[in-house]
Design a protein that fits this description.
By secondary structure, the chain is mainly beta. It has a domain at about 15-75 and about 145-180. Helix content is about 15%, strand content about 35%. The chain is built from three helices and ten strands. It has helices spanning about 15-25, 45-50, 160-170; strands at about 5-10, 30-35, 40-45, 50-55, 70-85, 120, 125-130, 140-150, 155-160, 175-180. The chain has a six-stranded antiparallel beta sheet, with helices on one face. β6 (about 120) and β7 (about 125-130) form a beta hairpin. α1 (about 15-25) packs antiparallel against α3. The radius of gyration is 17 Å and the shape is globular.
Length: about 180
Amino acid sequence: MAEKLILHTTAAASTLDAVTTQIREIGLIENAIDFQGHNHYLAGERFAALITFLGCAPHIVTDPRAGDSFCHVEPVATENSILIGGSQGVPPRCPSCRTKLGEWRNHLQTDEITAETSLNCPKCSSETALASLNWRHYGGFGNLRIDIWGIPAELALPGDELMQRLEETTGSRWSFLYLEE
């Protein structure tokens, strides 16, 4: 099972190179590696300063010889904004009445899942776009993201400096979520 902290936004996919350059310059990443046929990066010298770890002395493995669970970074871009996560047992909440939407897929008005797809809350009947639900950091939409592998859920948060630099680079707001797959 892969555990990830994912930083995500909706921005032009062409900014992936600019984002990768920025996170290299601030020290989040360093050397590129091939991991499962994709371009990933080892954690950089300022990784621990840019990611805030919660709790006492978390043990993060950074050695690639440790297998799939080692900490490394993968910048990813997709053509369209897609749902990331959202199926991990932590239901989103209605932004109007805060009802947990455990069966949110049953309330969709279409089979297509996009950020603009809307649903009607079974409790308050408000119509809400999926991107506007409170996913509680276990789901979200984006077409540009940074997957930080090897970070268990709720063990870490992106630091202010990292989020600010990403927003300056892309001109869009970034958020984060946890994913176990």
